[in-house]
Amino acid sequence: MTAGGDGDGVDGMDRWDRHWRRFAESARVNPAQAFRRRLILHLLGGEAAEPGAAILDIGCGSGDLLAELAAHLPGAMFAGIDNSKTGLA
Asked: For residue 11, is it within any domain?
């Protein structure tokens, strides 16, 4: 399929996977990510720290946010879903 199509490109990646690859690198070096994570932890509040709390990250990418949340909220259960094969790999 040609570049810009919805299916696999010459490199075997669809547009979403190519987008994720570019986004993941920029997010890794973006200082706003640390602020975003602190904000999310604050907004989740104490209820998320209770045993059995469940957190679903829709559009989780590589799961780096879930990993950080798990470090701060060891009693919670976590799951993530994403449309990108590259992001989940």
From this structure: no
- Domain assignment present for residue 19? The answer is no
CA 44 to chain centroid: 16
* 43 within domain boundaries: yes
Answer with the residue of higher pLDDT: 3 or 61.
Answer: 61
What is the enclosing helix (H) or strand (E) of 28?
helix 15-28
- The single residue listed with the structure tokens 């919670």 is 76
What does pLDDT average to over the chain? 80
pTM, whole model, 2 decimals? 0.65
In the chain the first and final C-alpha atoms are separated, in Å, by 23
CA distance 32 to 3: 31
The helix/strand/coil state of 43 is: helix
The residue range of the domain holding 40 is 32-88
